[in-house]
Amino acid sequence: MNKNILKTGLQDFIENNYNTDIVSVLLSKPRFLQISAQELGQQLYGKKKAEEKLPTWFKTPGIYYPNRVQLEQTSSEITAAHKASMLSGNQVADLSGGFGVDTYFFSRKIPRVTYCEIDPELNEIVRQNATALGINNVDFHCADGIEFLKNTATEFDWIYLDPSRRDQDKKKVFQLADCSPDVILHRDLLLRKAGAVMIKTSPLLDLSAGIEQLKEVAEIHVVAVDNEVKELLWILRKDSPNKEVKITAVNFTKSEQQVFEFERNKEKIASCSFSDPLTYLYEPNSAVLKAGAFKAICRAHDVKKLHEHSHLYTSDALISFPGRVFRIEEIKPYNSAVLKTIKGSKVNVSTRNFPERVAAIRKKFKLKDGGDKYLFFTINKDNQRIVIQCTKDISS
């Protein structure tokens, strides 16, 4: 960590130039004594990245940004705040502290927070930023989180762990046993030291596999931002029976927070009614789809499904729904003669349970992307290929 970066003159330069072309900075002669072009480029990149992902850091003077990989791997503010909202008690340990975004939000909810980060430079950066952010209830440890846990006498209300998802060759991994630390191996230790354990994993991890491997799973949170699943959060409690796992699917949009909760065992025995497309079409958000709430959502929202495997829903009355809502204008059979009428149109194209990909359909019918019309290519309850033309319902 080069503390010269924190000097007023350089901080002013970063504040006024974070939108500049970083490549030109890297290729030019150093602008400041004792600071390399690479170090300056790192700070400019960090400041720009924080503008949307970490607005609190972006607005705070005297922030020192880590390298690109460490910054990209950190939680966003919106997901960190969601994690903090689930915590309770007096003591929480963040065993994989990283850039400290989760730790910061934990510190706003819990009286005493323990931060562990084995990388000494990153640890120093986060300590510096804690001062800039006004954090004074965090105990910092430059240590491996699991080793710290083995040696501490403290018992925590919550332990949070975000295992590294890169192997020794820096390649991305997502299976639990391939991540570091291996939470399967250390599960008993974690549950001995805390009343509850929260583990963050890749969105690619299969829910059934995770439940089977982690054993004492009480809850799973599928967290999406702008309809892109960002992380899975696994809540472990000692002696939790897996068959009663509660799943929460949450999608943060610019205007709202869409939440759908259900019990996994009830999804397995739930049933759906099927219907031809009615007045409104509903497409669940990505968090609901990843959570696998395909039948529970029918009962909860009184909608009918188009086909067992299509995961599109319909109703005559407009309802509030965790996903996109469309008003149906026309339903066409999928054949060349009928579809000549859409050739060359400017439309948004989606497929659900359909044998052709969006790119192939666009090419086949020379469709341009955009506009206010939407075409859903799917299969109905009678296993017929259909195209649903609709517009997005803004009143929903």
Automatic annotation (TrEMBL):
Single annotated GO MF: methyltransferase activity
Name of a matching Pfam family: PG_1098_Fer
Keywords: Methyltransferase, Transferase
InterPro entries xrefs: PG_1098_Fer, SAM-dependent_MTases_sf, Thump-like
Domain PG-1098 ferredoxin-like: 280-322
Top-level taxon of the source organism: Bacteria
A Gene Ontology biological process term: methylation
Residue span, THUMP-like domain: 323-392
Name this protein carries in UniProt: Class I SAM-dependent methyltransferase
Organism: Muriicola soli
